[in-house]
């Protein structure tokens, strides 16, 4: 949980305040509170909040005391606060110094979801310090009880305009959140981004970093004299889009615990992989990672950034290709997948993850059959020279289902390929069937012998090998089609029909009789796995 604007209105000092505009911003997270009474409004516009820079998630207190009659200046200043990432404005002394609130301010606040709060009108006894004390105490209590950075920062970023969604913004948010300076460097330790704490220390911190004789190793720290009583931490940050980066954390006094530092590096890695050094440059890989690691809160925040409705996604396709083809698949295969599936799905999210290609989609009603679409896609990819398999997983109702299914695929895909030799497209149910077969093979000899009982009758006939081979191909590869079975065995259909009739005689039941068919199918699969050893 993080403190929102709505939470502030429950505090004693703000309980009688009224929200008159920007109600949609009440759920935005508040990082701190500040007072702004500029003697020269132009300073606020041109220097304190330069165009495009992020300084925010603060709630701002003001009485517009230096511009009580200048509505144009009030409007411009409030607009710049909202553009800078501030979440709202608490107006004091309305009806005392500021005679009334102009309707233009109300319209602006509604337009930008910038919460406009008015303290009790006509009250000269109000003090800024009361709200500052209450808000600050609430934020510190929340941080002590809920030291979770990832969802909080992502929620703040997703609410920002696109031009402010950047690595620099994330570093500033984190710097404010943990009261520490954050420095992002390239592999040669040249500074790329710097968020100083306090902001006024930026020049001295930059100079101090550049003049250091030694830096700590990865995930280590050392005492330094850049700031009084400070310590410098170093973390390597993986970058999916280019060379790795180094994150330096400089903190005075009381040092952050290891959990906070781990979360901090995760957030920075997210920022680097989402936007790199260019605002708006996104990597869908992070959404895939959040889904497959069963992190629903992170997933929802990332989905908001990408404007994707993950609630409608209940299907995952996993593609497995040779390791030496993965980089070429990233360049050629992924664009083909997205292009192919967009004709049948509203949303397609696809990327590489842990050596597999994962694609998530919502299936448009009345689209062609999934089997045909998947077979067509596999055929087109094979036409590009990729050797692969494709597994359709549906339905998946939660990130836990997705995570379990992905891990199951990792565990049994080689077994699946040994059972269905002529197939390249599989299903979730076939993954689960293969897992059951593996379990039987790993259990006692008695369990395996029992599972193979349906094939015992073939031990006592002269043509047992030919009959078993035909049965396996008929059930496992040919989909119980005589013609397909004949083609796969390079036999005449009449020969296959003769063998199948012979098999029916030996078994004593038709090859489509349930539940006998399931036991026979499983026995054929187990026999094939035993032969492959």
Description:
The structure is a single chain. The protein is 46% helix and 16% strand. The protein has 533 residues and is an alpha/beta fold. It folds into 4 domains: 5-145, Udp-n-acetylmuramoylalanyl-d-glutamate--2,6- Diaminopimelate Ligase, Chain: A, domain 1; 150-275, 2-Layer Sandwich (Beta-Lactamase); 285-436, Alpha-Beta Plaits; 443-532, PucR C-terminal helix-turn-helix domain (Arc Repressor Mutant, subunit A), CATH 1.10.10.2840. A hairpin with a 5-residue loop joins strand 8 and strand 9. The longest helix has 21 residues, at 399-419. It is elongated and about 105 Å long. The two termini are 53 Å apart.
Taking the alpha carbons of the first and last residues, their distance comes to 53 Å
SS class: alpha/beta
Helices, by number, come to 20
Strand content: 15-25%
- Unreliable spans are 277-281
- The CATH topology of the largest domain corresponds to Alpha-Beta Plaits
Radius of gyration, Cα only, in angstroms? Answer: 32 Å
CATH C-level of the largest domain? Alpha Beta
Biggest β-sheet description: 5 strands, mixed
State the helicity in percent bands.
40-55%
- The count of domains is 4
Sheet with most strands: strand arrangement:
1-5-4-3-2
| Average predicted confidence as pLDDT | 87
Tell me what the CATH architecture of the largest domain is: 2-Layer Sandwich
Q: Based on Cα principal axes, name the global outline.
A: elongated
Total number of strands: 15
Superfamily (CATH H level) name of the largest domain: Reverse transcriptase/Diguanylate cyclase domain
């Amino acid at each position: 949980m993080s403190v929102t604007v709505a939470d502030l209105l429950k505090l004693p000092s703000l309980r009688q305040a009224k929200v008159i505009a920007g109600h949609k911003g009440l759920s935005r997270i508040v990082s701190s509170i500040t007072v702004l009474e500029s003697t020269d409004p132009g300073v606020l516009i041109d220097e304190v909040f330069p165009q495009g820079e992020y300084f925010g998630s603060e709630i701002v207190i003001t009485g517009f005391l230096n511009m009580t009659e200048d509505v144009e200046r009030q409007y411009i200043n409030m607009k710049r606060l909202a553009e800078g990432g501030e979440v709202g404005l608490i107006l004091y002394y309305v009806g005392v110094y500021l005679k009334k609130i102009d309707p233009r301010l109300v319209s602006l606040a509604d337009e930008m979801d910038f919460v406009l709060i008015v303290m009790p009108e006509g009250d000269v006894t109000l003090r800024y310090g009361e709200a500052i004390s209450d808000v600050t105490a609430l934020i510190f209590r929340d941080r002590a009880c809920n030291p979770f950075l990832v969802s909080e920062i992502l929620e703040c970023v997703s609410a920002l305009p696109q031009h402010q969604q950047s690595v620099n913004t994330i570093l500033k948010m984190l710097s404010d959140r943990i009261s520490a300076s954050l420095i992002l460097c390239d592999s040669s330790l040249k500074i790329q981004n710097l968020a100083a704490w306090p902001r006024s220390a930026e020049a001295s911190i930059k100079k101090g970093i550049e003049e250091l004789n030694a830096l700590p190793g990865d995930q280590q720290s050392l005492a330094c004299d850049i700031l009084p009583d400070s310590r410098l931490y170093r973390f390597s940050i993986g970058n999916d889009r280019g060379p790795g980066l180094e994150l330096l954390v400089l903190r005075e006094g009381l040092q952050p615990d290891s959990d906070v530092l781990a979360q901090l590096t995760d957030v920075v890695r997210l920022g680097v992989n989402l936007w790199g050094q260019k605002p708006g440059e996104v990597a869908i890989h992070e959404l895939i990672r959040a889904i497959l690691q069963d992190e629903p809160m992170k997933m929802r925040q990332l989905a908001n950034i990408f404007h994707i409705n993950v609630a409608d996604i209940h299907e995952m396709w996993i593609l497995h290709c040779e390791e030496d083809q993965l980089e070429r698949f990233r360049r050629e295969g992924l664009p083909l997948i997205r292009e192919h599936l967009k004709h049948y799905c509203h949303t397609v999210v696809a990327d590489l993850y842990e050596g597999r290609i994962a694609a998530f989609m919502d299936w448009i009603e009345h689209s062609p059959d999934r089997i045909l679409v998947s077979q067509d896609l596999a055929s087109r990819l094979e036409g590009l020279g990729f050797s692969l398999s494709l597994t359709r997983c549906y339905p998946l109702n939660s990130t836990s289902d997705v995570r379990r299914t992905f891990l199951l695929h990792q565990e049994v895909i080689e077994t699946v390929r040994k059972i269905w030799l002529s197939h390249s497209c599989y299903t979730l149910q076939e993954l689960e069937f293969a897992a059951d077969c593996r379990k039987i093979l790993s259990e006692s000899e008695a369990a395996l012998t029992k599972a193979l009982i349906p094939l015992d009758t073939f031990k006592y006939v002269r043509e047992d090998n030919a009959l078993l081979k035909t049965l396996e191909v008929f059930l496992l590869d040919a989909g119980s089609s005589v013609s397909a079975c004949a083609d796969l065995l390079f036999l005449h259909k009449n020969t296959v029909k003769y063998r199948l009739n012979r098999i029916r005689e030996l078994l004593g039941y038709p090859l489509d009789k349930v539940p006998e068919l399931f036991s026979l199918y499983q026995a054929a699969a187990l026999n094939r796995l035993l032969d492959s050893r």
